[in-house]
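User: Teach me something about this protein's shape.
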Amino acid sequence: MDTLRIGTLDIVIVLGYFVLTVAFGLWIGRRKVKSGEDLFLADRSASWPMIGASLFSANISSQQFVGQAGLAYTIGIAAGAFQMVGAMCFVFLAVFFVEVYLGLRLRTAPEFFERRYNSSSRLFVAAINIVMILAANIVTALYAGATVINDLLGWTSAFHFNIAVVVIAMAAGLYTILGGLRSILWVDMMQASLLVLGGALTLVLSVQAAGGIGEVLALPEGATENPWSIIKPWTHAFGWLPLITGATILGVHGHCTDHDYVQRALSAKSLFHSKMGAVFGGFLKVLALFIIAAPGVVAAKLIPGLAHPDQAYTRLITEYVPTGFVGLVMAGLLAAILGTVAAGLSASSAMVVFDFIGKWRPKMTEKRKVRMGRMVMISILIICTLLAPSIKSFQGVFGYLVRIWSLLAPPVFICVVFGIFSQRATSRGAVATLTTGAVLGVVAFWMLGRLDILDTLPDYFRSSLNIGVVITVVCAVVMWSLRAANPVPQAAAIRATSQPNEAIMTPGEKRLYRVSLTSLLILIVAVVWLFSPWGVAGI
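Assistant: First, the predicted structure itself:
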């Protein structure tokens, strides 16, 4: 065991907040869960602050604070460009997708595919979605959480790492299994404010330690690229072209079609609350650039030569944040890790129950759905706990996430976009597109993992984001080639749901929504300009 990186007071604060989070989640979920919608959709009663905070907590937490800060430590603020893409994708969710989803009264995101195409496409997408949530959300959240705990306590053995994974899994599973989405939403509300506060505190203190903003923005000696430029060359793995194309495809899939996010939009008490929740989530995503990616860049100046980039954020906290505040910041981070595990657990089990078991047993009682959902959650936790240590083989958790997301997202992205915006997309085309995309994604994932193959590829094809674009184009060609000569009946039904009665949103609600949406778009443009060669990166 190495030296302890956190003081006794901080350990007490972390443990206390850890216990408080679980206890609060259990207290919220103390009311008896009576139905599947109660367990998985909070009985469709959520308000917009709760939805936005939960979207933020589910998306940010461990993967971002550990993985994206580690990527920023390596390549600069460009790692945070994903936050800006994500903010725009929440705009797309509010403007284009929410009305359709709520109009159809969906219980899961894959259910859209059955309404628009057929049962086969629904099962296909549900399977892909479950795999992505398990592999790219729950497993990585457990890995990242264990990484944080081990780094704080100075643990280095595989045994201690596995113990940390089990503790996190049990804590998150406890209130999720008993309280369902209602507990998750309330816990996420509590966590989001602490995450923002802790991230802002970390950034301010680390900048002070580095000598102020002027020193932080100064180029390192011998540097050829400015780490504060969000715009990288198009040939870079995270350059402007991969971000505009591949990252946007990935983002629309993740933020607008993945059930772990859509689930929150579906839990809204009204169209207004669903739309405003997505917009609020977008504002919080913009903040994430400053509280996650920016500290990673500062860490590269303060703590060069780390053995593993994923240690950057925790080292920044333990070395430059005062005692007491360290515990507060780390408590928020660990609690958010619980939130990510809980979100993925609820979403994946909902799809297993509604999209698979529910199809085979349509007459299953609500009581049986609740019991089955809880059994599925337990099974998923066990599987993910066993898989979490395997993430160590990847060079940074965020790189692992991007590879999975970008290679499996294209076929689902194409089917959803064609399903909503084209009346001639067919069921045959959807199945062919999903099959083609899945096969190409698996092959590409294997290729990118082989250095002997990777070294022979042109620069453009060495990025999973760029390969994702190629797969998307192929999927679009497949879908278009199998289009119908005339509009299909399902398309007319989908279009009708996207034009709800005007009374759904009051004039006051519409006004607030439009002002908020416009403000978010202006903020996104301003922040991108700030970290461009025309902003601080050009100083």
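Now, about its shape. The chain has a mean pLDDT of 84. DSSP finds 21 helices and no strands in the chain. If you'd like, I can walk through any region in more detail.
User: That's plenty for now, thanks!
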